[in-house]
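Tutorial, part two.
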Amino acid sequence: MSALADGREAYAQRRWPDAIGLYTAAEQDAELTAGDLERLAIAVILTGRGPDGVDILGRAHLRYLADGDHSAAVRCAAWTGLNLILLGEPARSAGWLARARRIIDDVPQPCPYEGLLFIPAGLGALYGGDGTAAAEAFTRAADLGRERGDADTAALGTLGLGQTKILLGQFPDGLALLDEAMVAVTLGEISPVPAGIIYCAVIETCRLAFDLNRAHEWTRALDRWCGAQQNLVYFSGQCQMHRAELYRLHGAWAEALDAARAAQELAFRGDRMATYGGFYEQGEIHRLRGDFDAAETAYLHAEETGFPAQPGLALLRLAQGRPDQAQSLLRQAMDTVDPAYRRRMLAARVEIELAAGDARAARAAMEELASLCASLDMPMLHALAEQSEAAVLFHEGSPEASLVLLRRAWSRWLSLDAPFEAARCRALLASLCAALGDEESARLERDAARAVFFELGAVPALPVLERSAPAGLAAPPAPVPVSRNRGDDAPAGPLTARETEVLRLVSAGLGNRDIAAELFISEKTVARHLSNIFTKLDLTSRTAATAYAYRHGLV
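Running the prediction step on this input gives:
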């Protein structure tokens, strides 16, 4: 086969470096067609060379114009503009988008790709906080995409509309639209670049909606999608930063740090959108471990991207014994970010305001967090709201009411498998029990929390155990692995939700390492879950566990 034919085959198989090399070799012998130039540009963009890819896409645009294919020329111009937005070049982007609009206006027949031009307008309105204008633009994009057979635009418009509805607090409708956009991606209907955009945007939006289960599911899917492509840089860094957050939540801090560093490396290689998350997650792990200087450096690198490193940096100031600075930093950040990001800072706001002595501000933040539960039924959100209310009530002198809320929050977090947050929750339970005169329960809770802190290396959390009345919690409160008083969200049967998930994966033939990778937990945590499964079910082997799973319809 010729280099050109081989290049086309490599592109179809998503062997991006091979496609680039073969197309480049073919161009030495003859001019590439407009379609081949466009495919070359996409391969170059996906391997992290965005500026070079944009230049090649511009050449493809000119070739399409020379061939009289105005619709394809519009597609290239629009995607050049969209890529320039991602590269941080708004002026050049505006020029290319205006060029695409002029071609559409000059050609009498409808253009299949006209809907693409509404995506930048929707993004501008979304990031500017104008939900109404964003919804109108994204709806127009989705409608035009469907009417004219452009699946990429239809999916991007659906995605944007889902993001907008979540920004506006219309959570069920927004999440349903995100799922709809992802169906098109998983069916293979979407081109590589918009597919990656949709994956990463859906995961980020699920985080902002406190939907940990969806974020987990789509991060696993994104991980597999990235792994199936040769030397994919673009989107791989963002995948790593999402992996880092999940590892951190599940107590796999070494794995989280590795993923954060991988995100930074891929950001340096071209996935610029991974820069913030890579450094922010690195800062979080260093802060939790007590390496405050390293945390400071990482947070400041994150802030260089233009986004506030909050609430992490404020919580670092609190850990350093500077509550007034923590309070000032977080208040300033929450006054400037959009509502979706503000929601993610509310739990930290409760803790910091209590520590700084402003109980009224703490209660206001707690009530704002609790009010979200009426429109968004997510275990993480309910746990945050209940835990924050428990901290405020305890501070106000109502330990009995706090205890009920805290145990309910713990039960919700139990299913989310978050050991550090679980231990912090037990630390507060210890203080509550002590305040109520139950010293034996206080000792048991304190000892259990201390064991987890030592295992994780969470040095700064240890002094909390010696306080009689902690001000609150910085991170989302978490489960306490005790069998009593389980709440409504506790899984049915002898196994927790996570243990059931581990059992299913064991039954599928996965080893501990593969299970850990699939669930974004450490191998040590997998082993602990297996031990619990064997004990609860009175089993002695993986084979017996598999048989149990099949007998009880778990697989």
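Residues 388 and 489 are 18 Å apart (CA to CA). In part three we will examine how such features are distributed along the chain.
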